[in-house]
């Protein structure tokens, strides 16, 4: 599933209209119908006492979900809002337009908040379809209807010709308490800055009404690219995103404001996005399989042995943070690699022997306090010769000469490197673009604080547009970047980005990142390419976190070791 910016969306709209010759009004009709169908589906679910959309084709994590029109389970197209028809043959049958049929329509009254642009036009089209389904609607124009132009004006006239009731905000009486739901069609991808005037007042009133809100395309007040929420911003139950998923709907806080996101086709072919060079994707099983060529079954050869599945070297852990190394090393084992060697300061050895009997231990250095030393680089380089990947950083601490230490590993190891935690902090002090001889890929796995140090930004600036930053950093530095946090972003030096939605808020616990480092390293050792290992590792780590959270009486009890056990 593609992720697009507002600018890319405008270009794809234009391509569809100008090159394919599909009239803009047809796209708007499709959008209006899709929105109406999702409102009816929401009304039905409310009637059944459930607020969540159907699960077919949905990618869900921690209360956030994206629902597509295609089932990821079987690859068959499924209309996400349709109710289904009895397939058994009972002679000649005529069925109604099920997706636009609502038994409880008489109990519904929706306010349609209409903005001046095409987003408002989508809302007006949706209002007609809802009215046809028997739902009472009242159009609430944010601006005088005469100021609408183009397709939105056509929709205004069609709604008026159908006799739909309409009020103009600020001129006519309006009572949110009288409605059963609100369609937010105020601002879409053409919005600029914080909502102004009547738009701001309507958004604030809608939010405080306590009614269910469905947003057309994006919640009004959201920056469609960055996920920044302006003041005010609609807090939707459902967002019916049109044609392609907008980046801002996946990035927090926008992802929280959007509620459940349903992506609906409106007649813009996906092939246009590919031709236009859109290279940002939602990380789904389908994307893993088809774009990244990952074998999701993780099939193992009947003739395989431990040598078949690769050998990870983990350089990690100090006396006060030995657990970080242990978690990474154990996670690498659980990811399916054949062997894991944990290189650790000599002094730690007696304390960790037996902690995970499956691990091989390699004591390095001779510091009396169990910290790392610059001289261990030579020992690690020797160890790395027989290994397929080196993971460096978890629980490493800082030490004299650590800059040169990391530089040697970077320049002299002949295997892929996964760099995490304090090794990232070391890197942040370097102009490592001048480092040489790196032929094998490097994967950096920063959390937002580490990313801030790497990029010379504040954490808030990192979080402002995680996708944009990850893409820019990975391309500039020639690394695969795994920007951790809610909806981890994986960006490649070639300019692709994948946004993951597996995971659970309970995973915000010490050591969860160390586990991820181990998983990615273990997958690399098994022969996955760097981008495959990074993306699949993040995806599996999130799934394991979800399973671990659901096993607990309360997800807050989740600890990093639980994630390893669910891998
Ligand atoms: N054929 C197509 O293109 C298709 C488009 N589609 C739909 O169109 C949407 C994009 O439509 P759009 O480009 O017309 O912009 P849109 O978001 O409706 O609003 C822009 C208007 O709002 C105003 N305004 C701006 N910022 C403001 C603010 N902060 N506070 C207050 N007002 C503000 C601004 O007015 P101005 O200030 O310039 O007078 C401007 O006129 C897209 O999200 C999708 O829903 C789909 O149906 C597919 C086919
Ligand atoms: K909207």
UniProtKB/TrEMBL annotation:
Enzymatic reactions: (6R)-NADHX = (6S)-NADHX; (6R)-NADPHX = (6S)-NADPHX; (6S)-NADPHX + ADP = AMP + phosphate + NADPH + H(+); (6S)-NADHX + ADP = AMP + phosphate + NADH + H(+)
Residue span(s) of domain YjeF C-terminal: 289-567
Binding site for K(+): 119, 184, 220
Cofactor: K(+); Mg(2+)
Gene Ontology BP terms: metabolite repair; nicotinamide nucleotide metabolic process
Cofactor binding annotation: Binds 1 potassium ion per subunit.
Any GO MF annotation of the entry: NAD(P)HX epimerase activity
Entries under SUPFAM superfamilies matching the protein: Ribokinase-like, YjeF N-terminal domain-like
Domain (YjeF N-terminal) ranges: 9-274
Keyword terms, alphabetized: ATP-binding, Isomerase, Lyase, Metal-binding, Multifunctional enzyme, NAD, NADP, Nucleotide-binding, Potassium
Binding site for (6S)-NADPHX: 118-122, 188-194, 199, 217, 324, 395, 447, 514
Annotated EC: 4.2.1.136, 5.1.99.6
Record note on quaternary structure: Homotetramer.
NCBIfam families: yjeF_cterm, yjeF_nterm
Family: In the C-terminal section; belongs to the NnrD/CARKD family. Belongs to the NnrE/AIBP family.
Function: Catalyzes the dehydration of the S-form of NAD(P)HX at the expense of ADP, which is converted to AMP. Together with NAD(P)HX epimerase, which catalyzes the epimerization of the S- and R-forms, the enzyme allows the repair of both epimers of NAD(P)HX, a damaged form of NAD(P)H that is a result of enzymatic or heat-dependent hydration.
Designated name of the protein: Bifunctional NAD(P)H-hydrate repair enzyme
